[in-house]
């Protein structure tokens, strides 16, 4: 799942080398922390947060297949 | 024939390079084919390239008003750097969802129009995305005794059909909605 978010983020940003994803495993939920270059923040969030919402939808559906909940935190 | 901005030959490989690994990493059991767009409703949607998804996970793709299908489409457009005013030229579809949804929206619009004419009271649709709201506005285009407008913000924006002469109610206090009404062409 970490890999999934990394691939999507790298395709969206201008500076893929600065994309990193950290997974924090909880009992019920895995939190995925996404970091990108400050100048790329808008690229992963999108207008009115639409890109971030789309990534979360993809993550949610992928998690459903694994019976596991994932949340995505985009860190500034 | 019109000149195409996007073709299977020019966009296909880029879509392929992004989408194929994404579907695999997400564990979705989906395959896709990239084909030339051919629209049944050219005045509403007239895509140049269509990505047709198939496979056991199509139900997942189309559940909750095709939320996943539209999310994959949006992320792919952004990853390919397609400017937002071109997003409608590349379209994701599965089981003819897009065409069927347009027909469903048109039927809803016709039923709502009848009701407003009969009762003289406005009808408010459930919230829809801009593409879907546009279908409703377009189907109201030739209605001389009705008008349509969108109210609300972001994902809560919804179409309201009014009798032509009826003014819109004032926006509730604290509303941040400063967008002017955007009715269909009348």
Characterize this entry briefly:
By secondary structure, chain A is an alpha+beta fold. Chain A has helices at 2-12, 41-45, 50-65; strands spanning 20-25, 29-35, 69-75.
Largest interface summary = A-B, 22 and 20 residues
CATH topology of chain A: GMP Synthetase, Chain A, domain 3
Order of helix and strand elements from N to C terminus of chain B: HEEHEHEHEE
CATH architecture of chain A: 2-Layer Sandwich
| CATH homologous superfamily assignment of chain A | K homology (KH) domain
Mean pLDDT of chain B: 89
Structural class estimated from helices and strands of chain B: alpha+beta
Helix content percent band of chain A: 40-55%
CATH C-level category of the largest domain in chain B: Alpha Beta
Layout of helices and strands:
The complex is a heterodimer of chains A (76) and B (186).
Chain A: H1 2-12, E1 20-25, E2 29-35, H2 41-45, H3 50-65, E3 69-75
Parallel strand pairs in A: 2-3
Antiparallel strand pairs in A: 1-2
Chain B: H1 8-26, E1 31-36, E2 49-54, H2 58-79, E3 90-93, H3 97-119, E4 123-124, H4 130-139, E5 146-151, E6 158-163
Helix pairs in contact in B: 3-4
Please explain how this structure is put together:
The complex is a heterodimer of chains A (76) and B (186). Chain A is of the alpha+beta class and 76 residues long. Chain A has a single domain, classed as 2-Layer Sandwich (GMP Synthetase, Chain A, domain 3), CATH 3.30.300.20. Helices cover 42% and strands 26% of the residues of chain A. The model of chain A has no long low-confidence stretch (mean pLDDT 95). Chain B has two domains: 88 residues, GMP Synthetase, Chain A, domain 3; 64 residues, R3H-like domain (Ribosomal Protein S8, Chain: A, domain 1, 2-Layer Sandwich), CATH 3.30.1370.50. Chain B has 186 residues and is α+β, with helices and mostly antiparallel strands. The two termini of chain B are 29 Å apart. Chain B contains four helices and six strands; from the N terminus they run αββαβαβαββ. The chains are: A alpha+beta (76), B alpha+beta (186). Chains A and B meet through α1 and α3 of A and α1 and α2 of B.
